[in-house]
């Protein structure tokens, strides 16, 4: 009994010796996964630098697309998929059949690394993304065949459903093409398709996989977490219902927030049924365990618990609205899931399985990675809370965020280098990659078929993301043959038809406007002329009438649906401005600050009103 209690109190041991993790394929797999994580961190660091010193020739949204695609499809997909492969696939011959998938995923991800920063969504980036998607279908099919050899324990059921949700998430990607072609890239359904993919990819594919691996880790210690059909059904239901929150970003219907609240409560119950027994067995009383690898898993488990607790707060509609209108919260929550739960939870399991090294270089890499994660999360959630409380900004916030983010590539470079040390893992037979690629391409006709199938899919996707010709832009409703091009009202659409600017600048109003703008706008817009998520504010009163500016602030949903100028800006930035329920009085204060900002930066203001 004392020995058992010791193990239970301080750490979980992975006692099963799995030869899969000693294969050369697992070594290559994890090297590429960490390399893509390192690359994604460099893109992320560049995104931080946009708010510090700009980034020259690169466009913010192109770098953002590169960062998100490489993080999700490079690091996240390879880590989760590889962990499932090397944990559950039986037999070395069967394991070798996954080489072709690794090669395909590596080639397509490298293609995305090169193409997205240069062109954003374009011919080559869509090509590589589509091939990756199609190959993932064959990958899922092969995983299902290998998992069919197991009985329906809790771990296997969760992993199977993880793969199912991965396939379900891809529906959103295929919906982008018809939504963009027939409705336009500024239609809410276009953005909803993207959110569908992200929601089921992260909260379905990734979360179910980490729950399955945690369950397997306990089962390997002779313990188990029983999930009845009812509890598992509630977990599925909560995943579907909580999609109402991202849906509310595109459709401002209050009932969606109530649906999300129901989903969050069901999710809290389902998570409690799984996580609380898991934590009770692995980390009693949430005590920090001994051993650095156990601490890595501990951070992942606590991050998953925090995700569930944070979402409980979203049962309050006002809190749900704040969760997506304050961008720091959005980024912080995504990182809590991707960096916290997935990276540390799954990564710690892989280290215990001998799939990642345990040497000193790796150890310090993971420790620095945890420091980077905790410090940046503190800044993101801390600054978001200050904005919500109308308490201003942390001094040098963007600089501090950039400096702490430097720790990410530094830590990942150490982990990557540790994978090339001789003593890092185990003796493996190193083969020439070029010979492997040649042999696999010759002997596996399935890969050729996959590449051919992707060509047809690419033409479909190009219909919505192609060359930018007018025929591809779409409209909300198909125009009748006799319809004429709509002329933009310079005052916009809304109840604000006349604005008295007065003489000079009202400093009191401008100060109020700056406080509101800091709270609701500066996460996406800068006060200069540089575009990040949205266009820069500099010169706006010289380009747009004051009525248009105030209508855009107070009547954003209608403006995005009916105003040609607002629609053109949305199509350019591809990020829908949320309705933040700003009053007319507050919008007038914001306008006053924008006038002051233009006068200070350009020497003039209100040119559009003259």
UniProtKB/TrEMBL annotation:
Q: Gene3D superfamilies in the record, alphabetically?
A: Cytochrome c-like domain
Its name, as the record gives it, is Cytochrome c
Q: Where is the signal peptide?
A: none
Offer an example of a GO molecular function term for this protein: metal ion binding
Region called Disordered, residue ranges? 472-493
Q: Which domain of life does the UniProt lineage start with?
A: Bacteria
The species is: Cecembia calidifontis
Keyword Nucleotide-binding listed? The answer is no
* InterPro entries hit by this protein: Cyt_c-like_dom (IPR009056), Cyt_c-like_dom_sf (IPR036909)
Residue span, Cytochrome c domain: 508-598
Q: Does the keyword Membrane apply?
A: yes
Q: What lineage is on file?
A: Bacteria, Pseudomonadati, Bacteroidota, Cytophagia, Cytophagales
Q: Which UniProt keywords apply?
A: Heme, Iron, Membrane, Metal-binding, Transmembrane, Transmembrane helix
Residue stretches of biased makeup (Basic and acidic residues): 483-493
Regions that span the bilayer? 32-51, 71-89, 101-118, 124-144, 156-176, 196-218, 230-249, 255-276, 296-316, 328-352, 364-388, 400-420
């Amino acid at each position: 009994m004392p020995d058992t209690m010791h193990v239970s109190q301080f750490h979980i041991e992975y006692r099963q010796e799995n030869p899969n993790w000693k294969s050369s394929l697992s070594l290559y797999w994890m090297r590429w996964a960490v390399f893509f994580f390192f690359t994604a961190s460099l893109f992320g660091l560049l995104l931080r630098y946009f708010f510090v010193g700009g980034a020259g020739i690169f466009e913010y949204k192109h770098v953002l697309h590169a960062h998100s695609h490489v993080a999700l499809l490079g690091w996240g997909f390879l880590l989760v998929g590889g962990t499932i492969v090397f944990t559950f696939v039986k037999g070395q011959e069967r394991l070798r059949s996954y080489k072709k998938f690794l090669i395909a995923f590596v080639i397509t991800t490298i293609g995305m690394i090169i193409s997205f920063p240069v062109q954003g969504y374009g011919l080559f980036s869509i090509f590589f993304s589509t091939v990756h998607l199609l190959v993932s279908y064959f990958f899922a099919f092969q995983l299902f065949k290998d998992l069919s050899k197991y009985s329906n324990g809790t771990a296997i059921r969760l992993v199977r459903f993880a793969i199912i949700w991965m396939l379900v998430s891809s529906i959103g990607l295929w919906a982008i093409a018809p939504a963009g072609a027939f409705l336009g890239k500024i239609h809410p359904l276009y953005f909803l398709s993207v959110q569908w993919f992200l929601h089921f990819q992260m909260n379905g594919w990734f979360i179910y996989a980490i729950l399955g691996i945690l369950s397997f880790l306990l089962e390997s210690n002779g313990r188990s977490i029983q999930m009845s059909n009812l509890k598992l059904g509630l977990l599925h239901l909560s995943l579907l219902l909580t999609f109402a929150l991202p849906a509310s970003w595109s459709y401002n219907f209050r009932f969606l927030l109530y649906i999300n609240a129901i989903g969050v409560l069901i999710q809290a119950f389902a998570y409690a049924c799984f996580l609380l027994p898991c934590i009770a067995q692995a980390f009693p009383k949430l005590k920090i365990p001994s051993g650095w690898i156990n601490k890595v898993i501990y951070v992942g488990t606590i991050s998953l618990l925090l995700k569930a607790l944070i979402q409980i707060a979203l049962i309050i509609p006002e809190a749900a609205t704040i969760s997506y209108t304050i961008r720091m919260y959005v980024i912080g929550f995504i990182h809590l899931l991707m960096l916290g739960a997935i990276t540390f939870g799954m990564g710690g399991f892989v280290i215990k399985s001998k799939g990642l090294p345990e040497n000193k270089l790796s150890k310090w890499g993971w420790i620095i990675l945890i420091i980077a994660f905790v410090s940046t999360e503190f800044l993101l959630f801390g600054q978001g809370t200050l904005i919500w409380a109308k308490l201003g900004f942390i001094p040098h916030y963007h600089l501090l965020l950039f400096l702490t983010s430097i720790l990410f590539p530094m830590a990942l470079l150490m982990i990557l280098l540790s994978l090339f040390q001789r003593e890092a893992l185990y003796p493996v037979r190193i083969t020439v990659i070029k010979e492997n690629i040649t042999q696999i391409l010759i002997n596996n006709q399935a890969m050729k078929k996959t590449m051919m199938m992707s060509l047809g899919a690419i033409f479909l996707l190009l219909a919505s993301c192609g060359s930018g010709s007018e025929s591809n832009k779409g409209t909300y409703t198909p125009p009748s043959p006799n319809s004429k091009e709509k002329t933009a009202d310079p005052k916009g659409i809304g109840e604000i038809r006349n604005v008295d600017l007065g003489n000079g600048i009202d400093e009191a109003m401008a100060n109020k406007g700056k406080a509101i703008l800091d709270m609701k706008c500066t996460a996406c817009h800068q006060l200069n002329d540089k575009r990040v998520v949205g266009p820069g504010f500099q010169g706006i009163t010289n380009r747009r009438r004051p009525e248009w500016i105030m209508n855009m602030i107070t009547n954003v949903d209608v403006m995005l649906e009916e105003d040609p100028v607002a629609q053109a800006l949305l199509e350019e930035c591809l990020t829908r401005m949320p309705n933040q329920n700003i009053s007319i009085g507050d919008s007038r204060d914001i306008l006053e600050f924008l006038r002051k900002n233009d006068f200070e930066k350009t020497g003039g203001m209100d040119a559009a009103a003259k």
